[in-house]
Amino acid sequence: MAASVGCSSESSSNENANADEAAKTGPTETQQAETGADKLAGPTDENLAKIKLPEGFHIDYYADSVKGARSMAMSASGIVFVGTQDAGNVYAIVDKNKDGKAEEVVVVAFDLKTPNGVAIKDGDLYVAEINRILKFSDIENTFRNKPKFEVINDDFPSDKHHGWKYIAFGPDGKLYVPVGAPCNICEPEKPIYASITRMNADGTGLEVYAHGVRNSVGFDWDPKNGNLYFTDNGRDLLGDNIPPDELNRATEKGQHFGYPYCHAGTISDPEFGKKHACSEFVKPAKTLSPHGASLGVKFYTGNMFPAEYKNQLFIAEHGSWNRSEKMGYRLMLARQDGSGNISSYEPFAEGWLQGQEDWGRPVAVLVMPDGALLVSDDKNDAIYRISYNK
Question: Which residues form the domain of 263?
Fold first, then answer.
């Protein structure tokens, strides 16, 4: 790993040369318009009326001009930073008057290589590209001014297949970074593939924390015991209903969750399953919707929702891409019982899929300081705010 410093802007990598050169001058007026850098117009989308929620809950737009909105992280002052995939942008969403609706979307960086993951630590913004992790220091004071970044680690594979990354800092202060399998189904040659890794905040000490993880794009830690819960997308081309996605629970470093030998705890892979029995691996905490593309997961730690939602898990199902009948496109609720087992898995917010036509695709979830829940949507270019009042 060779650390380097630059603007959203400066890098020694040839593949990012054009992006870095463009960033020196900042976004053009066209780019500003496309990415919502101007003040937001008031949201008027009638589609929100199609979203079904439990009684007492309400959904509205927090921001409605966030092209390709995916992972989210919040700074100490309440600025929501948002990563993207195809758009190549990182945004800052600003709600100046704290009324639950953002007034501004600012382009922090653009033309990055799939900057899906974002995380905040000690006032610095961390961004995950496919093959490297960037750090933008003192982001609250620099996000409007083409901030410089430091490359803290560039030791990750450059494969685009499952290469986009969700990142977050754990209770141990380390940055957790998944590395997807570079295929639908295969035995990866390098141990870093199909894993969740972790590193120190300065990029040193990179190690594999969890093995056998095909493609995780969301995780969180149980606030009661610190266990890591993560979603994992099942392999394709075994039919509409096999295998289901997984919600896994990692209780210590070094555990293996089955890929590519066993899926969902009980399904032996037809190609690789003969090499290892399913009993050798950690079983899922809960099997999820088959091919629902389960992504973001968050424990609800706020105080706005009724007490029965406290410390329960919200999971964003992005929606199937090749299932004969579409599935997902909704926000799910996984409930834990008193023993910490997942006792139920049920829809919480649905309506982005109407029949077989989808108008939105939920990606990630974030709990706000006031207890409201933010949900990003990379198809409708929006961030929603779900609130509760009796």
Answer: 4-388
